[in-house]
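cron nightly-structures :: item 1 of 1
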Amino acid sequence: MAAAMASAAERAVLEEEFKWLLQEEVHGVLRQLQDILKEASHRFALPVGSTEGPVKQENFMLGTSSADQVKGVLMLQGDALCQADINLKMPRNNQLLHFTFREDKQWKLQQIQDARNHVNQAIYLLTNRDVNYQFKTGSEVLKLMDAVMLQLTRARNRLTTPASLTLPEIASSGLTKMFTPALPSDILVNFYINLNKLCLTVYQLHALQPNSTKNFRPTGGSILHNPGAMFECGSQRYEVSHVHKVECVVPWLNDALVFFTVSLQLCQQLKDKISVFSSYWNYRPY
């Protein structure tokens, strides 16, 4: 009898604690998440309304590649490369080539746009309820946390996992038409985000002759293709002879990745607390 009374008393205490968790602690965590993710969204500095001013331009010096083959400066404005000034030294004859974006061209970095869209969707999920709303069940909170975590994971993955492209896709991406003077037919370039870095890869190509004895094996999709990779563009077959990758750190991308990690941890901690309560009773009040 005493054990039963103790069990009933213990359950009553746990149910009160769980009620406090739903009514108080959950809302505190949601406010904390909103604050963090609004900071993350601001880091992307993309105007979404008429009240926001123009996005500032940032200049980044590209780190030198091996033997200083590629040097340059990139100008980033939000999610767009608005200028690229690149010097390329050709290894065969040490000829120095200089290219810049045409004045009428910008290159959108879709990874940045997508990441911010996912962050804003997570913020919408956190704020899309009346200020006096009270959660009734733990499962309701778990469902919300799962939805928010899905958006944050997608945002992080867009920055940490660049899309794999085949060499023909890079050749037809439009980047080859961005420059003045025009890029030679034996040069391909690709810009992308990898973690907190803005990367430029330059591919120097060798045109394969129709009577070439080389065994032609088209390469598949990759973030970075190696020398020896082959592809066909139009009626011409090419082999990659040299690859140069240069990059620069974008500090606010690093900030955003930290905010994503902290937010995911907060979501998981709240999920864990709710799950702990469920282990104390056989029926599930959530």
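cron nightly-structures :: done
The beta strands are 58-61, 70-77, 80-89, 96-101, 107-108, 179-180, 187-194, 197-208, 230-233, 236-249.
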